[in-house]
Amino acid sequence: xxxxxxxxxxxxxxxxxxxxxxxxHDVTCACRGVSGTVPDGAELLVWDRDxxxxxxxxxxxxxxxxxxxxxxxxxxxxVAAVPDAHWVFVSTINVYPDNDIAGTPATLRLHEPITDDxxxxxxxxxxGAMKVACEQIVAVGAASSMSIRxxxxxxxxxxxxxxxxxxxRLDLGGEVLAPGSPDDTVxxxxxxxxxxxxVDSAESxxxxxxxxxxxxxxLGDLLAQAAIGAGTDCTFTWVDQEFLxxxxxxxxxxxxxxxxxxxxxxxxxxLAHDPTPSFDAGLRVRPIADTTRDTLAWLxxxxxxxxxxxxxxxxxxxxxxxxxx
Length: 325
Fold this sequence. Notes:
- There is one protein chain.
- This protein is an alpha/beta fold.
- The chain is built from 11 helices and 15 strands.
- α1 crosses α6, α5 crosses α7 and α7 packs across α10.
- The longest helix has 16 residues, at 126-141.
- It is globular and about 70 Å long.
- The N and C termini lie far apart (62 Å).
């Protein structure tokens, strides 16, 4: 298979390129080439997607394309340049506006598409709506296509640092601040499992729209499995969301945040998408303990890796306040 990866230097797109190379495919990564390196065995084709595509793209024959873009103009330009290939477009669960409702692509409504490019840093709510527009551009313009809507992607090389907080924190051991309720639902997808499914789908020209999500877990169970993967001896102290908010702890991410924690019931559905249609379409996921173990190994080898979440000092302050309440 001759595969064009639009990207290829960071996290998911780089993992896709590496997986395809490992399977013996002819892989070209088209990007600016300034955010990192492409995997060994892949060819770098320099293309700033604000510009028209080079002849090396438009005049070549591609079997499949994998794209992770969030900007409609970039997707529109690329689909027009390579309309005859099979496209696998990586979207997001942020296309769904109703975060309190769990479901599947067949049951959940979408944001109204935004077809113009908007900087998500100035308008974060536009991200999901632009991804809807990108999905539609691919569906209309490509010879055949599949859209995958991942949730929280975890694993080695994660540049967001969100799940990464937990292997790092659990490795420290001791008393661990656990946010919300152990019965809250949560799900992650290991980047390697998602990558394997993307390449499988490019090879088989799988079509349709699916959520790229793993099993639904109780948060208490997920953290317990993660502790096994980290090989640590720790205890969890569960602190309710009202107290966390009063202590100015933020959900999800940030230096004052606790990853995997989302306000309830407003976000009851965001990390509880039914994975059954995706599993039926070939997605296979590994245990949480394995993702934690391998992420921790990567962290130990990469001391400057991004990590979001509370510092040990901030966590200790919140725990002390909780015990003294």
